[in-house]
Specification:
It contains ten helices and 21 strands. The strands form six sheets. A seven-stranded antiparallel β-sheet has the order 11-21-20-19-18-14-13. Strands 5-6-7-8 form a four-stranded antiparallel β-sheet, with no helix packed on it. It is globular, with a radius of gyration of 23 Å. It has 392 residues and is an alpha+beta fold. The mean pLDDT is 93. The protein has two domains: 100 residues, N-terminal domain of TfIIb; 227 residues, Naphthalene 1,2-dioxygenase Alpha Subunit, Chain A, domain 1, CATH 3.90.380.10. It is found in: Membrane. This is Carbazole dioxygenase. It comes from Immundisolibacter cernigliae.
Length: 392
């Protein structure tokens, strides 16, 4: 018998955000990125993994298809040895069972073309959409001809705006997806960036921390027909600290607020787990961070910078060159590499689930609690081991 994914005893003790606690593998019935479009050439087949489920993705005739990476016959991964004898099908390397990419239908068995099984079984397929250079897969349950919710409802507002160019990278991080999301939205985690090359490389006014500047009024967006998330206007809620003292003595000091780049203005966290950092790394840009569940102990970290006002190919090429030479090394890696090892450092504390009860949050963590509550209210379902194993 399989061990429960989460500890039910802990779930009983967490009242107002229990669904979030139970979503170790992520939220079901939501759209998630599985790869960048540029990583999948025409005719190419690549494996992917979302919410613990093994997937296989192919681009054929310009369209991207996604099926479960597991033969119905004996359960072997089709990706172990990809065999496609036509643009519309994939054949299992073990016994020749052949499936259609579009609907997963078992359309032939090369080792026994007279089998009565042909046409009676189907591999699971997943809806796919491409947007802003990313391949999104809907991880959920559709009945009959029902359609998934619009992709825009699982993305931050503005992400799909047509005048925005996008540039991104991705890394696999050894930490649960929730630790990634909370690290990004955590106000005072900025302390770990005090030695970042971004500060000197961009003449940035990056503080050591943020002290409360009055009552924290968070903007909660919960319209089911739109993006749902928690918005924190940092410029209104906090006082940046550029100096730290112990016993009246200054022990740390960072660049004064006269730095050329004062980019951090508003941060927000959106379902099903996407951070938006406005005015960063430049005033006309937004950095998005997708914390996509890979399995219980890893998440795929997509970092995307979008620039507004890009209307032609020349401007888009200039933006890409700027990202490659400046924003990727200083922001996406220079700053965010700190976040990667911070999340991995937290993983051990939360891995057995008791960390959710033993953590000692303080005043500045209120936005994290609001996020947990909102995510629990707005989720469309919870991924379980039964879903991964095909039993539900």
């Amino acid at each position: 018998m399989n061990k429960p994914l989460v500890n039910p005893e802990i779930g009983q003790q967490i009242r107002d955000w229990r669904p979030y606690y139970e979503a170790k593998l992520g939220f079901r019935n939501h759209w998630y990125p599985v790869m960048y479009s540029a990583d999948l050439a025409e005719g190419e087949v690549k494996p992917g993994k979302l919410l613990g489920e093994d997937l296989l993705v192919r681009r054929s005739g310009g369209t991207v298809y996604c099926i479960k990476d597991q033969c119905l016959h004996r359960g072997v991964p089709l990706s172990r040895k990809v065999e496609c004898y036509g643009k519309d099908t994939i054949t299992c390397w073990y016994h020749g069972w052949t499936y259609q990419w579009a609907d997963g239908k078992l359309c032939d068995i090369l080792t026994d073309p007279s089998s009565k099984m042909i046409g009676t079984r189907s591999l699971k397929t997943y809806p796919v959409q491409e947007a802003k250079g990313m391949v999104f897969v809907f991880m959920g349950d559709l009945v009959g001809d029902s359609a998934p919710p619009p992709l825009a409802t699982d993305l931050p507002p503005g992400f799909l705006d047509p005048d925005r160019a996008a540039y991104g990278i991705r890394r696999l991080v050894k930490a649960n997806w929730r630790l990634g999301a909370e690290n990004g939205f955590d106000t005072t985690h900025i302390f770990i960036h005090k030695d970042s090359p971004f500060i000197t490389g961009r003449d940035s006014a990056l503080p050591l921390g943020f002290a409360s500047a009055g009552t924290l009024q968070l903007d909660l967006r919960e319209d089911p027909a739109a993006s749902r998330g928690v918005v924190d206007v940092m410029a209104q809620h906090y006082r940046p600290l550029f100096e730290a003292t112990l016993d009246g003595q200054t022990v740390l000091r960072t660049r004064a607020p006269t730095g050329k780049h004062n980019t951090i203005h508003t941060i927000s966290l959106w379902m099903p787990g996407i951070l938006s950092v406005e005015n960063h790394p430049e005033a006309d840009m937004v950095q998005y961070e997708f914390y996509t569940p890979h399995d219980a102990d890893h998440h795929m970290y997509y970092q995307v910078i979008e620039k507004s006002g890009v209307t032609d190919a020349a401007q888009e090429a200039a933006f890409r060159a700027e990202c490659e030479s400046l924003h990727e090394p200083l922001a996406l890696r220079g700053i965010n590499d700190d976040d990667l090892w911070a999340r991995e450092a937290m993983q051990g504390f939360y891995a057995d689930d008791w960390g959710w009860l033993e953590e000692q949050l303080f005043e500045q963590d209120r936005n994290l609690l609001e996020w947990r509550r909102l995510a629990s209210r707005c989720q469309r379902g919870i991924q379980t081991l039964a879903h991964v194993q095909g039993g539900a």
